[in-house]
Here is the input.
Amino acid sequence: MNKLQPIREEEEDFYSDDDLFKISSWGADLSFRELVQRYKDKEIIKPELQRKYVWDKTEASRFIDSLLLGLPVPSLFLAKLTDENMLIVDGYQRIMTVHDFIEGIWGGDRKVFKLVNSEKINKRWRGKAFTELSDTEQKRIKNTTIHSIIFVQQHPNNDDTSLYQVFERINTSGRTLMPQEIRNCVYQGSLNNLLFELNRNKKWRILFGHSEEDNRMKDIELILRFFALMSKDFAKMKDGNISLKKFLNQFMGSNKKASEKILNDFKQKFEKTIDFIHDSIGENAFNNLSSTPGKFSPNFSPTIFDSISIATCELLEAGFVFKLKKVHENRIKLLEDEDYRSVITQETMRKDSILTRIQKVKSILYKA
Here is the structure.
C-alpha cells in the first residue's frame, strides 16, 4: 500500500491576502428552533467534508445536557453566501447534535438518539430521547439561543479566498483541516463533483495505491493539481515560486461552475491519461526508486505524478506515436537523471522546475 511522499515546501505553503479583502461581520442570537428549521429548509448548509460526526455519543449527550442545564455554549461562525444561504464555518457539530436529538436519530450510527446513561449526564435525563423529555424541557432546548458571528465578503465579489482562509484559521472541529477539505467546503459546484467522480476511477485507485478514498482528500487534491498545472492559468503565470495552495484555490474557484463542455474535456483528459499510464507503465508509475537496486519506493510522489501525467496527456493530445518497448528501461534512466531528481525534490513549485520535469519525462521516458 502506497504512502503519499511529503514535500516539505508544499506542506509549509502559506499565503495571506488579507489586505485585499473587504469583509463585513455582525453578531446575531439565533435559537436552535430557527437554526434547525433553516437547516431543514437548506438555508443553512453543512460543509461537505463532514460525512459523519466527529463527536462521539458522550460528547453529543453532554452538549444536550448543557442546554438543558442552561449553560452557555460557544458561538457559531457562519458565512453568508451570494444566494442568501449561509455556510457553517464553525459549529456544525452543535447544530447537528440538536437537529438529530429533536429528530430522534443520531447521525453517528443512524439509531435512536438517547442520551448516554452516564454519570457525566444529569441523572434526570440519562438514557432519554427527546420525546421522553417533558414539554418544558423540549421547549428549553428549542428556545435556547446561541450567539452567531456572520460574515460576508464584499470585495472582491467574485472570489472566495477569504472564505478559504476563514475556514483554515477559525474552524475548530477537532482537527486541522487539510487544504482540499477546505476547498471541498468553499468551492462546491460542478468541478468539485467531478473530482469526486474521477477519484473513484479504478485504475487511478491502483496507481494511487489505495483502494479506499483518502479521508483527508489528498488523492482528490492530486487530480486538481493535474488539471491546474496543465491549464492556461498556469501557462500565464510569471516565472518564480508559486504558492500551490493559492493557485489551486484560484483554479478551483474560477472553475467551480464550469460548463459541461469544459468538464467533459477535463474528464476525457484524465481518464485517457490514467488508462495509458496504468496499462503502459504499471501500478507503481508514480513511485520513485528505492535504495534497493531495481526496487521502487512504496511512497507515491506528487512531483513524479504531475510530471508523468501532464507530459503523457500533452503527448496524447498532440497525437504522438508512442514506442513503448523500452519504456521501463527509460523510466529507470529518468528516475536516475540528476536534473530530473533535482526538480522533483528541490524548489518543486518554481515554474521552471515544473516545466523542466515535464520536459524531462517527454525526452527521457518517451523519447519525444
Observations:
- The chain is about 50% helix and 15% strand.
